[in-house]
Design goal:
Elements lengths: L8 H4 L4 H10 E11 L10 E12 L6 E4 L4 E7 L2 E2 L2 H4 L4 E4 L5 E11 L6 E6 L6 E6 L20 E9 L3 E4 L3 E6 L2 H16 L7 E6 L12 E4 L2 E10 L5 E10 L9 H19 L8 E6 L6 E2 L4 E5 L10 H17 L6 E3 L6 H18 L5 H16 L15 H6 L4 H17 L1 H15 L2 E3 L1 H12 L4 H8 L6 E6 L12 E6 L13 E11 L4 E12 L7 E4 L10 E7 L6 E3 L2 H7 L7 H16 L5 H10 L7 H18 L2 H21 L3 H14 L7 H8 L15 H13 L5 H10 L3 H13 L3 H13 L10 H12 L4 H8 L2 H14 L2 H11 L16 H12 L5 H25 L1
Parallel strand pairs: 1-10, 16-17, 17-19, 20-21, 22-28
Antiparallel strand pairs: 1-2, 2-7, 3-6, 4-5, 4-7, 8-9, 9-14, 10-13, 11-14, 12-13, 15-16, 18-19, 22-23, 23-26, 24-25, 24-27
Helix pairs in contact: 5-6, 5-7, 6-7, 7-10, 8-10, 8-15, 10-11, 11-12, 15-17, 16-17, 17-19, 18-19, 19-21, 20-21, 21-23, 22-23, 23-25, 24-25, 25-28, 27-28, 29-30
Length: 916
């Protein structure tokens, strides 16, 4: 009988939870050895590379069958336990069938894999500055199978041994340290000479080749293995430290970036942050760093902020600041560095069994990253950034119809890829911050320590973490976990003054009300909270709201009508005041400000920085909910927000202001409000001389000017060196701002393609190429827009070459820019073609690339006619029609459309409320 593939082609790539569970019950993987041959990588247009893989594993059932995951270009040979298997019947488009297993097995595969342009798998980038080739891998959640055949699931951990063949002058790195670095010899050397000769004919100097073998890793999951190759600039460092009252550990450190960025690379600052982080986590977790060396590499065209590959952490090279950066950008980088370092324990040392418990690593890393920045660095604004940024992301995500509990139901890999979202990261981290307050910081720390000690190099679940929490606190954590981790939706807290009609309460007594509905079930949900309730009153001399009193309160989920009195909290009369039911931002909840508090915060600044950030987050939620008209929010930003000291808050308010104008402002008001904001930003440039606030303002003005043209003459003057003529000093017009201004001018037809080309020729960098593509697609010409739209749907340029992830995003973003109503109409005419192409785009592109197209091209910025119903808007109706006609479409694709439709309707409802 001929062996058949176990699953049809349509299903094999998307591994399900049930399949993974069956495979992990059947197998134990002993070791995996992989050699990747990158000798051909420097050649122009290199597309593929050879891979050799050998895996030892055992099966609990003799005679059973299983499969390897593989998304490579081809398989050349397949040998299982010494038997050569027929490729035509054992190799499918995404899986390799392994039949007739023995108790102990060895499978050997020779295969060919493709270099990636999407950031998934082994990504290949050619630096436009010097034409050097750079390679790096990115696998989460399941893309190591794009590089080598593998049992691709987190609970089949094993020890990996990697080797790389590549140019001698390149940095060749993996998770573990190199143990040998040898020149190729014999026949291999002859093949290497042939490869060098071929490359030389193409004008590429390869030089001698070496094989680098790396030490065997400890047990780890496949998605955190990593490879790096290229002429990276590197700076070495060292760490010596250890856990409290434990032995000292020595850790080699290294930071790397592209050679053309070396002059901008602040390696010493990064190494110092790394040492501080290691000291912090050693003290926090009482478990020594388990992965030997600690390399951190900043890579081009990265899909993420960073990835926690043990021993070889990858970061977006946007964190190498080759243009002026604000303090908030440096703090964000420090937060990301600490987040990934926390993963060395949460996620890498102890890993979830399946992606349902993705939060077990991401929520913890998000919380611990902010905590480490707060306690181990010189930044004092970490929790302000968290309240203003991360929580804002969570509140948005948790109000979508696709929201889910922190512990999600992840049935397959496509769902896992979609669940790297604001709930898994930011809501989970917010809830952990509440847990640390609720259970106590020391108890939380001790629970983490026991968790690592008990499950090191293994897999764990929510139940395992709750078990150590219960041991430490002596409390049953089931109710807490059920309320916080296994329900969805945002709690709403409000503070009010009692009327005296409430049973047992005095007139004027402060009451805190908790409300919550799980959108998945429609049922009311009450959660336990430990909070501080604050009263801020106006200081007449400073004309600022200052903290008058605060009181710690436990909110009982069983409290009648959700009301909890705060009897010891006094509220002065006859002064503007703010009742803040989440002082110190300890819990996760939207705040509903009473009328007097709202009037106060729209008129006066709040003195305390964290309270201020919490209030602004509440105001933005009210805008999105249609409870606060966008015009009032914009007025408050201009009156109060631009003077806030913390630049991270100002940057957030500027982004929200632009979104308020685009999505939440009625069309009848938009033109005036846009011009008013543009004029205010222009005035702000003259009011400040240099510094973060001026730069953030310039960025916002450039973005606003893509669609609003009242300040274009100013942008032209700044590009031409005429800042002084407009009373502006200290503003550095570097590459970033030059292109931002050019993009705005291009959107209004104020610069030609020849001028954009000349700017790119004058300084050809990776940043410039991306910016040029966006500017070119932003031009107000029907043929330009149609060409950009076609390129985005195809994922290729005019020559048919695949667009990289960054270039695809730039094309999409440039297409959506409309500097005038005529161009907006041209863009709108592509809507039907967009809906017709969705299924084909999803099937043809990788999920990451398809997501960029589906979300980026969705026509979500729409206007509501006076008196019209949001649900009757043509785009909302067309989206609903597509969803009804495509009920069997991939769940991940449907989720994107449902979310985009909800964001559209939210904006239209806010417009309707403002028009009422």
């Amino acid at each position: 009988m001929t062996a058949q593939l176990p699953f049809p082609r349509a299903d094999v790539e998307n591994l399900t939870r049930e399949e993974a569970a069956r495979r992990s019950a059947l197998l134990e993987v002993t070791s995996c050895r992989v050699e990747v041959d990158l000798r051909g990588a420097p050649a122009p247009g290199a597309a593929t590379y050879p891979v050799q893989t050998s895996i030892d594993f055992s099966s609990v059932e003799v005679g059973a069958s299983t499969f390897l995951d593989h998304l490579g270009a081809s398989v050349e040979s397949l040998v299982l336990n010494g038997e050569t298997l027929d490729l035509s019947t054992h190799v499918g488009p995404a899986r390799i069938l392994l039949p007739r297993l023995q108790g102990e097995n060895t499978v050997e595969i020779r295969s060919t894999s493709r270099y990636s342009r999407s950031g998934e798998g082994l990504h290949r980038f050619v630096d436009p500055v010097d034409e050097q080739v750079y390679l790096y891998t990115q696998y989460e959640p399941a893309d190591s199978r794009r590089v080598f055949p593998v049992f691709e699931q987190p609970d089949l951990k094993t020890r990996f041994s990697f080797s790389i063949i590549g140019p001698q002058h390149w940095q060749l790195r993996s998770n573990s340290p190199a143990i040998t670095r040898m020149p190729l010899e014999g026949a291999e050397a002859e093949r290497a000479a042939g490869a060098r000769s071929a490359a030389a004919q193409d004008g590429v100097a390869v030089g001698p080749l070496v094989r680098v073998e790396f030490a065997e890793t400890p047990r780890m999951s496949s998605y955190i293995t990593a490879l790096l190759a290229g002429p990276y600039h590197h700076v070495e460092g060292h760490y010596r430290g250890g856990v409290p009252e434990g032995e000292q550990v020595e850790i080699p450190l290294s930071v790397l970036c592209r050679a053309s960025l070396a002059e901008h690379f602040d390696a010493d600052a990064l190494l110092e942050l790394t040492r501080r982080g290691l000291d912090f986590f050693h003290a926090e977790f009482a478990y020594p760093y388990p992965w030997g060396k600690y390399d951190q590499v900043f890579v081009p065209e990265y899909n993420l902020g960073a990835m926690e590959n043990p021993g070889l952490v990858t970061f977006t090279e946007k964190y190498v600041f080759d243009t002026a950066a604000t303090d908030a950008q440096y703090e964000t980088r420090a937060n990301t560095l600490m987040h990934e370092m926390a993963h060395m324990w949460f996620g890498d040392l102890v890993t979830m069994h399946w992606w349902d418990d993705l939060w077990l690593k991401e929520s913890f890393a998000d919380y611990m990253g902010s905590l480490a920045v707060d306690e181990a660095t010189d930044w004092s604004t970490s929790w302000i950034s968290f309240a203003n940024g991360r929580k804002a992301w969570a509140y948005v995500q948790d109000q979508l119809p696709t929201t889910h509990p922190i512990v999600a139901d992840i049935g397959d890999l496509e769902a896992a890829d979609q669940n790297f979202d604001g709930i898994t990261y930011a809501k989970g981290a917010s809830v952990l911050k509440q847990l640390a307050a609720y259970a106590g910081r020391e108890a939380f720390r001790e629970a983490a320590r026991r968790y690592f000690a008990r499950h090191a190099f293994g897999n764990a679940s929510l139940g395992d973490f709750l078990a150590v929490l219960e041991e430490v606190t002596g409390a049953n954590m089931d109710d807490w976990a059920r309320a916080w981790l296994q329900t969805a939706g945002v709690p709403v807290l409000s503070a009010e003054l009692g009327s005296g009609l409430e049973p047992g309460l005095k007139p004027g007594e402060v009451l805190v009300r908790e409300q919550g509905v799980d959108p998945a079930t429609g049922e009311s949900v009450s959660r336990p909270h430990k909070i501080h309730v604050g009263v801020h009153v106006l200081d007449p001399e400073r004309q600022t709201l200052v903290l008058h009193a605060a009181q710690e309160v436990f909110l009982d989920p069983a409290a009648p009508e959700g009301l909890t009195p705060v009897p010891e909290l006094s509220v002065p009369e006859d002064l503007p005041r703010l009742l803040l039911p989440n002082e110190d931002d300890l819990t996760y909840a939207k705040l509903s400000l009473d009328a007097e508090s709202l009037a106060a915060v729209l008129s006066y600044p709040v003195a305390d920085p964290l309270a201020r950030a919490t209030v602004w987050a509440a105001l933005w939620s009210m805008v999105r909910d249609g409870e606060l008209p966008a015009r009032r929010f914009l007025a408050a930003v201009q009156q109060l927000g631009l003077d806030i000291e913390e630049i991270v808050v100002v940057q957030g308010l500027l982004r929200q202001s632009l979104a308020a104008l685009e999505r939440y402002t009625p069309v009848a008001e938009r033109g005036t409000l846009q011009r008013d904001l543009a004029a205010r930003l222009a005035a702000e440039l003259t009011r400040r001389s240099g510094g973060d606030h001026q730069r953030a303002t310039a960025r916002a003005l450039a973005t606003l000017s893509r669609r609003e043209g009242s300040q274009l003459e100013l942008l032209e003057a700044l590009l031409d060196g005429g800042a002084a003529d407009h009373g502006i000093s200290g503003l550095r017009i570097d590459e970033e701002l030059r292109w931002a201004f050019l993009q705005a001018l291009a959107a209004h037809g104020r610069v030609s393609l020849d001028q954009l080309d000349a700017e790119l020729t004058a300084k050809t960098t990776a940043r410039a190429r991306i910016a040029h593509r966006l500017a070119a697609a932003a031009r107000p010409d029907r043929r330009v827009k149609e060409r950009a739209f076609g390129q985005a749907l195809a994922g290729t340029d005019d020559a048919g070459q695949e667009l990289s992830n960054d270039h695809l995003t730039a094309t999409v973003e440039g297409f959506t820019v409309a500097g005038d109503p005529e161009t907006a109409a041209v863009i709108e005419r592509q809507s039907e073609a967009y809906f017709e192409a969705l299924t084909e785009v999803w099937e043809r592109m990788s999920q990451g690339q398809a997501t960029r197209v589906v979300s980026g091209l969705y026509p979500g910025a729409q206007d509501l006619e006076v008196g019209a119903e949001p649900i009757e808007h043509p785009v909302a109706l067309r989206t609903q029609a597509w969803l009804e006609a495509n009920a069997e479409a991939p769940a991940a694709l449907r989720r994107l459309l449902i979310e985009e439709q909800d964001q559209l309707l939210r904006g239209l409802r806010a417009q309707a409320a403002a028009q009422a």
